[in-house]
Design a protein that fits this description.
This protein has five helices and two strands; from the N terminus they run αββαααα. The chain has helices spanning 3-11, 28-58, 61-65, 67-70, 89-113; strands at 12-17, 20-25. It has a two-stranded antiparallel sheet. Strand 1 and strand 2 form a beta hairpin. 0% of the residues are buried.
């Protein structure tokens, strides 16, 4: 991405009407919101890519034949577990680790009861 294009995307809003194109600069707070949204999008895309690559690297050929059934991620949102107005990426990772431990415990417990 060219520096000029990134700068323009983060600092201005484009409005197109019939026969007219307006470029309006963001106020400082708006530009900060746009910057933060872009950073969150990049982190999300990177996180999804890491999950995909990790899952793919851990699968063997037999798993790949049945991948449609096994490639899923479940996220349990426990009410009141962490009640923050805004969760950070780090908090998401902590919650995910806790949920995986909870899942492991449940799977282990169910196997013992069978």
């Amino acid at each position: 991405v060219k520096e000029e294009m990134l700068f323009e995307a983060l600092t201005t809003r484009k409005t197109v009407t019939v026969g007219e194109r307006l470029i309006v600069p963001y106020k400082l707070a708006e530009a900060g919101t746009v910057r933060d949204s872009m950073a969150k999008s990049l982190y999300s895309a990177l996180f999804d890519w890491i999950v995909f690559r990790t899952n793919h690297a851990l699968l063997n050929n037999k798993d790949l034949e049945h991948s449609a059934k096994i490639l899923s991620i479940g996220v349990l949102d426990i009410f009141g577990f962490e009640d923050y107005e805004n969760n950070s990426f780090e908090q998401f990772c902590i919650n995910l680790a806790n949920e995986r431990l909870h899942h492991y415990f449940n799977q282990h417990l169910f196997k013992l009861e069978q």
